[in-house]
Amino acid sequence: MAQEVLRGRSSADSKELLRNAYDLRDAARTLVEDHRRARVAVQEALGPLRRRAAREQLASMPVARLKDVTSGRLQLPALERAEIETVLQVLDTTAYELQCLPGIGPQTANQIQAAAQQIAEAAERVASIRIGLDRSDADTTGLVVALHVLVNAGPDVPRASEAAVELDERLSPLVATARPAVSWWRRLFSSRERREEAMGALAELTQVLREEHARGTSEILAQASVDLLRPRVSADEAWIDFELRASDYYALLAELASLDPERDPGEGFLPDDITRRVKAQVLDETHLRVSLRGYQSFGARFALAQRRVVLGDEMGLGKTIQAIAALAHLAAEGATHFLVACPASVLINWLREIDARSALKAHPVHGSDRAGALADWVREGGIAVTTLDVLHTLDVPRTVSIGMLVVDEAHFVKNPETRRSRTVGAWCARTERVLFLTGTPMENRVEEFRNLVAHLQPALVPDIRRSDAAMGPRAFRAAVAPAYLRRNQLDVLVELPEVVHVDEWEQFSHADAAAYRRAVASGNFMAMRNAAYAVPRKSAKLKRVVELVEEAAANELKVVVFSFFRDVLGTVGGALGERAHGPISGSVPPAARQAMVDAFTDEPGHAVLLGQIQAGGTGLNLQAASVVIICEPQVKPTLESQAVARAHRMGQVRPVQVHRILTTDSVDQRMLDLLQGKNALFDAYARRSDIAEASPDAVDISEQALARQIVEEEQLRLETSRTG
Question: Start and end of every Helicase ATP-binding domain (predicted)?
């Protein structure tokens, strides 16, 4: 075959073929080198930041840690007498200066210095680098500028670079072997076997170049190199881009700085056999338009490998993106139709994310035109996005095979008696692959978690026993691992700015106290909760809310104000005036809700968004905000954590301040006391895919029972204080 190819080709044609092969190989090598150079620039920018972070850590590390490096051999009293208390102080002291201290000779001084240096090097290797707008010094700016090159080159560049490496490995031996076939003098001095090999290589090059031409490889490589070689932008341009696309910068930083933490947190503390199965699962990213974080890739592969699962990642970790990645993989394998069911509040967000993060087409099966949209989806394929309340109305022919059903905010279907839950169950029964997404898989009972799993893997439910829960974390984890993966922000988003919680305790004004007493006397729990805002002109809580907003305004920070009560939000809105956006409430249509968030986000500098916590805390991305004000404590602790997570999430670039407004000697204090155990139990059962040793029977505190208990206690307390 090789000889036939050569016989039909002139010498000039063969030389042209070889030149084209060399050109393509050189283009591949050029891209690989350009990509390497850009990555090296980031590593060089990381150097001083690593050293600074390490020094900050060493400044608080006691000098006694030097013993750990030397197996306890060092004697350190002389350092302590000289008031050298930290490893950093040792590091900044020369060996000669150490020798001058009584009781330290040259050998001991060298040992002390060597031990300090070892600790410093280890600290530098594992130092976490955090980028924040509040730390825009020259070193951090250099890192942002270096990252800007790779971020703006786009997610296709790493893929093109990997392909270029493979192309170079494929072409290099072929062009070397084929050279005698295009040179008469090389053929003259080559053996017959060598000439045959050359002819075979030339024939294979013909096929390779034909394939790469069809793919447009030359243009792809050239464009990727152009993207990498664009002139560096100014510091101001880089910082502006960082603030707009912080999550892209952080994802790249996590990869290049090895910021992703140890394996277990990112992999949800799964058993080894499941972890191996997930890692063996290939993830085809052909239809994706986003680079996944390591833990996100693992989450998508978990959904694919285990087929019917709950992804319970804490809010802000990108569960939507992980779901889209799983759908994109299945589309690459040939699946054509997918179905997403979600609350109405997040439908628009789903449509936006699918369009921005993938090449798949989304069909909004909702509203007055849902019948037409459903018909389009059935005919064209893609992702049908509908609401949990509309799902039961969909008439989809059985001939349409659903590649995967995704149920977002799946905790809404935990009650098997509701129509919503029964509908989801019916769809699960006709769909081979199902992915539930929820940051709160269990709010009150282990039984609720079992109900979710019953939709997915009914055979697993008998293995999730109350006795497993009581036996502690290992038994419970082993029981739920095949269907459950959860990671926390603190486990996997090591670069996320800190969140600072502040309880703002206020005293009732006389007007507040009178309103509160009336509410207690009438036994009205809800009136007790919002009594502190009953008389706006004299409300101590409202005054504090306004003060916090004014402080945020002075610092050009955006604020989200949450309350359970619409009338409280109306009161706050009246006090703040026109600068307040919203309020977002359950009665606001999804499109209008998203428009409020967009207007708030697009507002230059300071702005305020008002939202009902049960509506604004679900399905909205509020990372533009760095101050969260919660007007009163909530009956469900998860409501508060969800609301905070809307701001403290991937993409946030500033520390988040959370201010909870409370009044002393009131329903607020009683609620916190009673809910403390409930919140701790949620942490134990759901937050890290395992539980502490606690009784499952202690989980449930119903809202009615809690309200009755608090009302009775407050009535007794106030009556006692009056008679006393």
Answer: 300-459
pLDDT band at 602; cut points 50, 70, 90: confident
Backbone angles phi, psi at 417, to 5 degrees: -85, -15
- Which run of H or of E encompasses 379? helix 370-380
pLDDT, tens digit (0-9, with 9 covering 90-100), for 284-342: 999 998 888 888 999 999 999 999 999 988 766 889 999 999 999 999 999 999 999 99
Peptide bond into 48 cis (omega under 30): no
* Residue 190: closest CA among 206, 207, 178, 173: 178
What is the end-to-end Cα distance of the chain in Å, rounded?
A: 108
Q: Give the residues across from 610 on adjacent strands.
A: 561
Q: Is the dihedral angle over the CA atoms 657, 661, 664, 666 positive or is it negative?
A: negative
In this prediction, residue 130 carries a pLDDT of: 78
Count of CB atoms situated within 10 Å of the CB of 436: 30
User: What CATH number should be reported for the domain whose range is 264-491?
Assistant: 3.40.50.10810
402 within 8 A of 384, measured Cβ to Cβ? no
Q: How far, in Å, CA of 584 to CA of 34, rounded?
A: 48
The three-state (H, E, C) secondary structure of 95-128, written as one string: HHHHHCCCCCCHHHHHHHHHHHHHHHHHHHHHCC
Domain ranges of the chain: 1-259, 264-491, 497-723
Q: Are 294 and 266 in contact (CB under 8 A)?
A: yes
Rounded CA separation 52/49 (Å): 5
- Residue whose C-alpha is closest to residue 346's, from 377, 311, 385: 385
Q: Give the domain 497-723 fold.
A: Rossmann fold (3.40.50)
Q: What is the pTM of this model?
A: 0.67
Strand order in the sheet with 499-506: 499-506, 656-663, 627-630, 559-563, 608-612, 580-584
CATH topology identical between 264-491 and 497-723: yes
Rounded Cα gap, residues 111 and 93, in angstroms: 13
Residue 541 φ/ψ, nearest 5 degrees: -65, -45
Query: What is the rounded (10 degree) CA torsion for 610, 615, 620, 621?
Result: 50
Which residues does 716 contact at the CB level (< 8 Å), separation at least 6? none
Residue for token pair 């905790």: 411
How does pLDDT run across 543-564, given as a tens digit for each residue? 999 989 988 888 788 899 999 9
